[in-house]
Amino acid sequence: MAAIANVALTNYIKFQVQEEDYLYHGLTGNIIQLDDLSKEMIDTFRSKGDQIADTTVLAENILLQEKSDFSQVLNELEQLEIVRKDQNKSQRFSVTPPAPKTTENMPVKTLVFHLVNECNLRCTYCYAGDGEYGAPQKYMTVDTADRAIQFLMENSFEEKDVNIVLFGGEPFLNWKTLKYVVERATSEGEKRGKKVGFSLTTNGTKMNAEQMAFLNKYKVMVSVSMDGTKEAHDRYRPMAGGQGSYDRVSKNVEKLMDIHTTAPIGTRVTVVKDFEKLETSLRHLLSKGFYEVGFAPVTETNMQLALDEEDLGELLNQFEELSNLFVEHALKNEYIGFSNLTNLLKELHTGTNKAYGCGAGLGFFAVSPDGGLFLCHRFNENEEFRLGDIYFGIDQKKRTNMLNELHVDRKSTCQSCALKHICSGGCYYEAMERQGDYRAPNAHYCNWMHDWITIGLKAYVKILQHNPSFLDKISGTTKERCISN
Amino acid sequence: MKHLKSLNWKGKMIEQTVDLEKEPEVQGLALLPMGCTSLFDPGWETDFSGTSLEGVCQPHYRDIYGCYGDCWWAAQVPDGLTNYGSWADECPVAANDWRKLKYVKP
């Protein structure tokens, strides 16, 4: 007697929009509309099969006994690699990109410059501990910056587009080096036929008109950290002296919008317990002239600040409200800058297939004021995550090992998850803080991410039905950038 | 695909790849020339060298009878097949006699 052949409906989310049925397949990134027969088959699958996370397994003969026509759907699903019959059959669209065997030839594309380990604000929730990262050296000298630029130029190999992130602490506290980095990297790039893109994260308290004109000249993409209205902002973002920072930032932002017109200016809201209504924050910040607003939950172990289950539920409800607002405008061909959704829609459109939570250690590194190389800016000055330095180069052995450890195939709970290739386990720093191990998947966000991605899928389908070109427009280019400050 | 419809850019690419590998349901008649559109070698009418390089930049009048006479290519010339059968009677060689072509008034 032949062994019973099981079929697996793999890594999927089923969802509905206006009573029509759709399926998102996480391994291939395909979003599919189902007809009546395929809907019926999937319902049968779900009612009779065994569910392992987002994967359902069922014996083929049981399925076909129900209705022999199901074989047509099964065949189509197998061709699209959504259903898997034979574990040994090689797959093309659904495979996870493997961990790199060697890293010597992998180009560095983005380098975060910690220009200074110091900040003039004392944000209650800051992961950098007042911007100092507990580090000995505070300021990056011009000499170190120069060497770091050389490092990027040499280690980006044939890459034509490279990025420099001007970061801190508060980068404006080391304006001399900041200015040098931008001018020097631009001319060095021109010499080598590379285009250098700059982005800058600032608290917005320390910019004068001359500096703004400089950012404008070099098309630096600026992100100002603001938490919404004055009341919300001043709650957790005080100056070192204790007074609120809103008025100062607000005045500078107004000036910045006038002077800096060559690159979009965005803002980032850190979402902390008892947060202000997001729509209020969004509308307030868009009225200041920001192109986009991104919301990021705080990374905290202190549960007085961190979001608990209830807060996360509320965050999700409000994200859904903002998404509905976004769709309403998108159908009129208007853009409401809710960047969390914009980024998600881009990923859904292009069918992201990632084996890593982010680009850290692949093409993305942070350099500390003394020239040390770190996995990312959030691990700045943490020796465990030091991957060499700009003088002697990357510690390739440590890099290869770390990338092996961080690969999504090492995260057992991710294997049957529909978000395996889009979340890939999430942020390593967040995992270290909340799960106690940087290699662990961010299990505390799993349900939340499923719900959020389902909201995104519904928004995607609604926009696709009535204004499909909008999706092509927003997906024009994607940049390799970390989503967390 | 009869039962499933890929909606996003990625899904469409996958479906396209899968479709390309199937046995075609319809095949072009490549061996039976039915006019230049079935030959897939633009420029053949001005290039007898076989290199596809000669005469590829000929002025449009080289095509005029093809566009006019049997209308195989839509162009801004009168249609000789149904309405203006004698339009080019006085112009046997377009390169020499193009001045003799007349305007038509539809």
From TrEMBL, chain A:
Annotated SUPFAM superfamilies: Radical SAM enzymes
Annotated InterPro entries: 4Fe4S-binding_SPASM_dom, Aldolase_TIM, MoaA_NifB_PqqE_Fe-S-bd_CS, rSAM, rSAM_sf, Sulphatase_maturase_rSAM
Keywords attached to this entry: 4Fe-4S, Iron, Iron-sulfur, Metal-binding, S-adenosyl-L-methionine
Radical SAM core domain segment(s): 103-332
Cofactor dependence: [4Fe-4S] cluster
Lipid metabolism is among the record's keywords: no
PROSITE patterns: MOAA_NIFB_PQQE, RADICAL_SAM
Gene3D superfamilies reported for this sequence: Aldolase class I
Pfam families in the record: Radical_SAM
Domain of life: Bacteria
GO molecular function: 4 iron, 4 sulfur cluster binding; metal ion binding; oxidoreductase activity
CDD domains: Radical_SAM
Protein name: Radical SAM protein
From TrEMBL, chain B:
InterPro entries in UniProt: QH-AmDH_gsu_dom, QH-AmDH_gsu_sf, QHNDH_gamma
Top-level taxon: Bacteria
Pfam families in UniProt: QH-AmDH_gamma
Domain Quinohemoprotein amine dehydrogenase gamma subunit structural: 34-105
Gene3D superfamilies named among the record's database cross-references: Quinohemoprotein amine dehydrogenase, gamma subunit structural domain (4.10.940.10)
One MF term in the entry's GO annotations: oxidoreductase activity, acting on the CH-NH2 group of donors
UniProt-recorded name of the protein: Quinohemoprotein amine dehydrogenase
Natural source organism: Bacillus aerolatus
Native organism taxonomy: Bacteria, Bacillati, Bacillota, Bacilli, Bacillales
